[in-house]
Backbone:
């Protein structure tokens, strides 16, 4: 698809909007359908589109495989870390009320942070899986 | 901090896992895994102490009150299983350090420890949680990491073995989640203690009985009860040595715990034995497992496979104890959970030492090893004697309670007691084949073959020593097991 100018330009224009939409699905996840899992998949889709149009090597320059693996681990640490922080603040594990004086905001921040962890891990895992499949037959990615 | 112990039990290994995954250096990941698994053991022991002193410990995640929130609920039964799983995790972790460097490609070593810690936290999670859906989540965590661990084995067949386990394990997990779903439909609750109160009201409905069936088949797949054991021999035979030692001594034990928790605590002993005739379903399966799998084990030439078949037979003993439907029988089951973990752990770790030195556990390759690797083979002999059930080893204690349970029931059950003795002789036959090869045949391999390094031998001998210690002084273990059995037979422990 390297010669198709419409596809190349179209992909370029769409990418920032896809990433934006992923963040919207995440941050609006507590009012509307969505959340970290869906957002992570959408975020991966943006890079998968670029890889399909511009080739794997070009995308891996922007998003190296070691970084996607780091993301996969980092998300779990974010999720678990929120729980550890609430424990340090004298509440039970994942007791979001600890995060703000008003429980309403505490729950809100807690959910957003935890879902951010989900987003990062799902993005990392999906992108790593995509790289593994896309890189098959071309040596180890 | 003591109030937070139930959650720390899970999150210490769970959060150490992703950190292991990003470490570049294999040794660093290894020591982090050792540290995490030792802390898990310390926490499990502290929890057992807490439960023995003050009764049930309940922990509300996110400060949500059960039955709405997820509850971690530790009573004497799962405190006991937590100690079993955590102690095996703590022994296998230092053993892995050298063994894994030998058997797994170096760039995969940090990932190995990540999967190992995930598997450990999954198994601990299944045990500690008081929420049905949480059980399923942790079951998936432990199973998925177990598939990955098994596929790391050196023979190419490890991949097919892992794939077969993946298919069978997923079928099992699906059955379990269907069962949980049906229970939720009938009661509107996922909390175990809450379910135990709500279920008697809907006992008569067919949905509950179907849920019972789904849960039963799903869990029995996971614990490899005959005839649902087909995934187990290859998975154990081709996995890396520390993985085999860990899985053989924990995964099936946790599945047995699930069976006891579901059927005796949630549905209640009365419903299980009087209405569903659980004992009459399990008894023939357990007997066939013990006899046929011991027989199959006798004819194996790969010693790891031999022990794997023996594991299926030993699971038969555990289920046999349950099918007695008595406190003594259940005590035997709970004791054998611990004792079998000790003996199979020691045996598979001794085999890991053999793999480390000669790269094979074929019975002919092991000829004459008794002189070359005296400590390793001595560990194997003690583990083997324990498997047979010789006095002064833990195997004897298990068999003692099992036979006691059978004789207590009297009548035709005496035949079961005789059968247990007869199958011990079969265990003697397959253990003897290995001992005969190692001690009475001439060594024909590489002249430079020597003893395994200390870092492999020390953890192995810790388990061997435990085999002897708890075989001689069984007061404490039998006491806890009996207490746990009484709690289970009475329904939900509180």
Residues:
């Amino acid at each position: 698809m390297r010669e198709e100018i419409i596809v190349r330009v179209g992909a370029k224009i769409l990418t920032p909007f896809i990433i934006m939409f992923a963040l919207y699905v995440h941050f609006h996840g507590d009012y509307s359908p969505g959340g970290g899992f869906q957002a992570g998949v959408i975020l991966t889709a943006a890079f998968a589109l670029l890889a399909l149009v511009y080739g794997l090597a070009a995308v891996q320059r922007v998003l190296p495989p070691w970084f996607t693996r780091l993301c996969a681990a980092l998300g779990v640490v974010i999720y678990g870390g929120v729980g550890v922080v609430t424990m340090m603040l004298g509440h039970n594990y994942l007791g979001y009320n600890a995060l703000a004086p008003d429980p309403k905001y505490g729950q809100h921040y807690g959910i957003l942070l935890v879902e951010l962890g989900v987003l990062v891990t799902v993005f990392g895992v999906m992108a790593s899986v995509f790289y593994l499949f896309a890189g098959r037959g071309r040596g180890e990615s | 901090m003591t109030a937070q112990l139930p959650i720390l039990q899970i999150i210490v290994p769970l959060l150490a896992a992703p950190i292991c995954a990003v470490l570049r250096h294999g040794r660093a990941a290894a020591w982090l895994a050792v540290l995490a698994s030792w802390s898990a053991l310390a926490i499990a022991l502290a929890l057992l102490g807490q439960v023995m002193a003050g009764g049930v410990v309940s922990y509300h995640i996110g400060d949500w009150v059960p039955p709405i929130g997820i509850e971690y609920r530790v009573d004497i039964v799962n405190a006991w299983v937590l100690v079993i799983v955590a102690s095996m995790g703590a022994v296998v972790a230092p053993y892995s350090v050298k063994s894994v460097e030998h058997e797994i490609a170096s760039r995969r070593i940090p990932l190995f420890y990540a999967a190992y810690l995930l598997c450990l936290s999954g198994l601990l999670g299944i045990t500690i949680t008081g929420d049905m859906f949480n059980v399923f989540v942790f079951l998936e965590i432990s199973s998925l990491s177990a598939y990955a661990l098994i596929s790391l084995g050196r023979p190419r067949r490890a991949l097919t073995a892992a794939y077969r386990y993946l298919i069978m394990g997923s079928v099992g997990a699906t059955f379990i989640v269907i069962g949980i779903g049906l229970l939720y439909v009938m009661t509107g609750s996922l909390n175990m203690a809450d379910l135990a109160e709500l279920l008697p009201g809907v006992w008569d409905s067919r949905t509950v009985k179907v849920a019972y069936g789904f849960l039963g088949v799903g869990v029995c797949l996971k614990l490899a009860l005959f005839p649902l054991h087909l995934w187990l021999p290859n998975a154990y035979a081709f996995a890396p040595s520390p993985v085999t030692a860990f899985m053989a001594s924990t995964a099936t034990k946790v599945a047995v715990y699930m069976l006891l928790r579901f059927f005796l605590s949630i549905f209640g002993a009365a419903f299980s034995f009087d209405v569903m005739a659980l004992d009459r379903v399990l008894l023939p399966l357990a007997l066939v497992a013990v006899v046929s799998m011991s027989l199959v084990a006798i004819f194996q030439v790969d010693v790891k496979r031999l022990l794997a078949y023996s594991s299926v037979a030993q699971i038969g003993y555990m289920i046999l104890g349950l099918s007695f439907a008595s406190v003594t029988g259940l005590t035997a089951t709970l004791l054998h959970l611990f004792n079998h973990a000790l003996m199979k752990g020691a045996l598979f770790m001794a085999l890991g030492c053999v793999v480390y030195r000669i790269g094979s556990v074929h019975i002919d390759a092991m000829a004459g090893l008794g002189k070359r690797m005296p400590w390793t083979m001595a560990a194997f002999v003690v583990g083997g004697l324990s498997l047979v059930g010789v006095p002064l080893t833990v195997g004897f204690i298990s068999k003692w309670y099992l036979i006691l349970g059978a004789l207590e029931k009297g009548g035709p059950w005496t035949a079961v007691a005789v059968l247990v003795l007869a199958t011990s002789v079969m265990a003697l036959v397959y253990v003897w084949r290995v001992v005969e090869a190692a001690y009475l045949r001439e060594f024909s391999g590489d002249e430079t073959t020597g003893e395994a390094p200390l870092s492999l031998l020390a953890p192995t001998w810790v388990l061997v020593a435990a085999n002897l210690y708890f075989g001689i002084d069984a007061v404490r273990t039998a006491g806890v097991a009996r207490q746990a059995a009484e709690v289970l037979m009475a329904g939900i422990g509180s």
